Amino acid sequence: MITLFNRREAYITYSMQEQSETRSLLAQNGIDYSVKVINRKSPSPADAGSRARTGSFGENPGLMYEYIFYVHKDDIEKAKRIVQSRGK
Questions:
Q1: pTM (whole model) above 0.90
Q2: Which CA distances in Å does 63 have to 7, 18, 53, 82?
Q3: End-to-end CA distance of the chain
Q4: pLDDT tens across 8-18, in order?
Q5: According to the model, what pLDDT value does residue 44 have?
C-alpha cells in the first residue's frame, strides 16, 4: 500500500498518452502506483476569479494537466528503470 510516508515520485508528464503508457508499463511489471492529476488551468483558491480575467489565448492546451506518478519507496529504482527503458 502506498501512503504519503512511504511513496516516492517516479515520473512526471503533461502528456495523456505518456501517462497511459506509464500506467500500462507499471501495471505489467507488477509495480503498485498512484497518480496525482493537477489541472494547471483551474483557478487558485486564493484568486478564484483569475481564470475569467486571464483566459487561455496563446496557452498550450497540451499542458493543461500534469500527471505525477508515485510508487512505493522500495520500488522507485525499478520503476524509474522501466519508465526510462521505453526511450522517452
A1: no
A2: 25, 13, 19, 24
A3: 28
A4: 999 999 999 99
A5: 64
